[in-house]
Amino acid sequence: MKKLVWLYIALIAIILLFLLIIFSKLTIHLNFFHHNDNDELSVVFKLWFGLIKYTINVPLIKIDDNSPSIVLKGNTSMGDSGEGESSSKVQQVDKDAIVRNLSDAKEIIQHVVNMQVIVSKFMKRIVIKHFEWHSLVGVGDAAHTGIITGALWTLKGSVVGMLSNFLRLEEMPVLSVTPHFQMAIIQTRITCIIHFRIGYAILAGLKLIKFWKGGRPNLKMNTAYSKEKTKTV
Questions:
Q1: For residue range 52-99, what is the model confidence (pLDDT) as tens digits?
Q2: Is 133 exposed, middle or buried (CB count within 10 Å of its CB: 0-12, 13-18, 19+)?
Q3: What dihedral angle (degrees, nearest 10) is formed by the CA atoms of 87, 48, 6, 8?
Q4: Which of 20, 27, 90, 198 could be a cystine partner for 46, CB 3.0 to 4.6 Å?
Q5: Nearest-angstrom CA–CA distance, 230 and 225
Q6: 172, burial (CB in 10 Å: exposed 0-12, middle 13-18, buried 19+)
Q7: Sign of the dihedral defined by the CA atoms of residues 46, 133, 173, 154, in that order
Q8: pTM beyond cutoff 0.90
Q9: DSSP state of 217
Q10: Using an 8 Å Cβ cutoff, are 198 and 22 in contact?
Q11: What is the b/e burial string over 9-35, where b = at least 16 CB atoms within 10 angstroms of the residue's CB?
Q12: Rounded to whole angstroms, how far apart are CA atoms 25 and 39?
């Protein structure tokens, strides 16, 4: 009898935990800063009002001097900054890696029926809580700076229009473009906060599995990784 009671308690606890996860909101804070040749990217994932926190920092994004590739140097950490476990990583991205990623994405899309509909419905559940995009630009010439300023305003308007079509805007984005007529400078900062319920992500994942067809995809990234691993052994 006692075993049966404990079984019921365990089942109820599992169900309550499952419901808690489904209805929980995942909040993502994204911060990007670009100043001439320096780039910084920070992505923070928060769950249960910050009780669970995971941070990805990419403090260095630059062009490799010895090859036509991009070098990414960053670190990840659990919890608040300076607390919990953290790890650093340096990654080099070349044109072959980009082509493989695009090819793998196309391969996955071809294996899912109505992939566009599934992704579109999920993206409509994503809420942009806050969005700011500020830029300071100058090329040392007043006329050319004015033209670039107008082009940036057009670009930002197009980006906001695309975001409003695919995602849900909770408040109006804050945009600014400040021209600098005396010196050459390119500086921009993007701050974005989005959130969605984990249940919607789980539902989208289940739909992807349900409408999967054609067996196992032929991913080139896995093949490239296995070859690289074989060379290093």
A1: 888 888 765 555 555 555 555 556 666 665 455 555 555 555 556 666
A2: buried
A3: -130
A4: 27
A5: 9
A6: exposed
A7: negative
A8: no
A9: -
A10: yes
A11: eeeeeeeeeeeeeeeeebbbbebbbbe
A12: 29
